[in-house]
Design brief:
By secondary structure, the chain is an alpha+beta fold. The chain has a domain at 5-89 and 103-111 and 192-327: (Glycosyl)asparaginase (Glutamine Phosphoribosylpyrophosphate, subunit 1, domain 1, 4-Layer Sandwich), CATH 3.60.20. It contains eight helices and 14 strands. Strand 4 (103-109) and strand 5 (114-121) form a beta hairpin. Helix 1 (43-65) runs antiparallel to helix 2 (70-82). The longest helix has 23 residues, at 43-65. It is globular and about 55 Å long.
Length: 331
């Protein structure tokens, strides 16, 4: 039985209050979706996640209120997540089957619909920063692997040793995954999930979306998921919305999830929430795809929808409402 977990059902008033300016600002972020359940998480770890989500969403909202451009805010908040071992991006990235790390990221600006992406990088501390550089300083949209790393070196973007991404937690997850896989058993691990993403509406009325990930536990053969694919894991258009996705990337690519949500708003006249639910709770469920999205609309409305037991998420809407959640059963 599929239960519709729509996080917009639980709200709490933001202490910052409603913006006095005529132009609203809004922000939403996610830290991955999957089998995230209360009875599988200690109180200490839950508190750590909630504190991180609270600090990150508050920082991002303050930056937007201060007039910072959406691109700067998206990159800054995603970099906080890339530097944390709590999430499957940057420092906390999962391992490939061969025990390596291959990172992906993308970013899109909704005014001119500019975009940049990188895939399969192994030495870039902040893939989202490199994705922005691809958008702003190259004639291309997506660069991959060694070519992306060469581009980074030419620009002087910091590189790190692949050892920087090593964590015991992710190493144990890979070992468990491989043991069960080789024994012909269900891997019993959310190897498909764990992307991070941020979407914003800034004070200039621009929508920006960004996504970063370490990919899928045990992935092979240079697999690339939806995170760096514009229209699948990331999309922004000032005429509709900005979307960042997390989940089983193959399904998000096949169903062009991020673009579909925006297109439903622009072409079919659906609200942001209607469009997000139709794609995540109907189309993806029928197809067998698991995951979720965070999205912000041109008027400051926010949607955070997922069809999994949980999704790390936080938002502040244009009206000043703040939401923070982890589990699907939260009020």
């Amino acid at each position: 039985m599929i239960v519709r977990f729509v996080s917009s059902l639980f709200l709490c008033l933001l202490p910052f209050g409603v913006l006095a300016a005529d132009a609203p600002v809004a922000i939403a972020l996610h830290g991955g979706a999957g089998t995230i359940e209360r009875d599988r998480m200690s109180a200490e770890i839950e508190a750590e996640y909630r504190t991180f989500l609270e600090d990150s969403i508050s920082d991002g909202y303050r930056r937007l209120q201060a007039g910072e451009e959406g691109l700067d805010v998206v990159v800054a908040i995603i970099q906080r997540m890339e530097d944390s071992p709590l999430f499957n991006a940057g420092k906390g990235s999962v391992y490939t089957w061969d025990g390596q790390h291959e990172l992906d990221a993308s970013i899109m600006h909704g005014e001119q619909m500019d975009a940049g992406a990188v895939a399969g990088v192994t030495t870039i501390r902040s893939p989202i920063a490199l994705a922005r550089a691809v958008m702003e300083q190259s004639p291309h949209v997506m660069l991959a692997s060694r070519g992306a790393e060469q581009f980074a070196r030419e620009l002087g973007i910091p590189e790190v040793s692949p050892a920087y991404f090593e964590t015991e937690r992710r190493k144990r997850t890979l070992e468990s995954y491989k043991r069960r896989k080789q024994a012909g058993l269900d891997p019993n691990v959310d190897h498909k999930f764990g992307t991070v993403g941020v979407v914003v509406l800034d004070s200039q009325g621009n929508l920006v979306a960004g996504t970063s990930t370490g990919g899928m536990t045990g992935k092979r053969w240079g697999r690339i998921g939806d995170a760096p694919v514009i229209g699948a894991g990331t999309y922004a258009d000032n005429r509709s919305c900005a979307v960042s996705a997390t989940g089983h990337g193959e399904y998000f690519i096949r169903h062009t999830v991020a673009r579909d949500i925006c297109a439903r708003m622009q072409l079919a006249g659906q609200s942001l929430q209607e469009a997000a639910e139709a794609v995540i709770m109907d189309e993806l469920v029928v197809a067998g795809g698991d995951g979720g999205i965070v999205a912000v609309g041109a008027s400051g409305e926010v949607s955070m929808v997922f069809n999994t037991p949980g999704m790390y998420r936080a938002s502040v809407s244009g009206s000043g409402e703040k939401r923070i959640g982890i589990f699907g059963d939260e009020p």
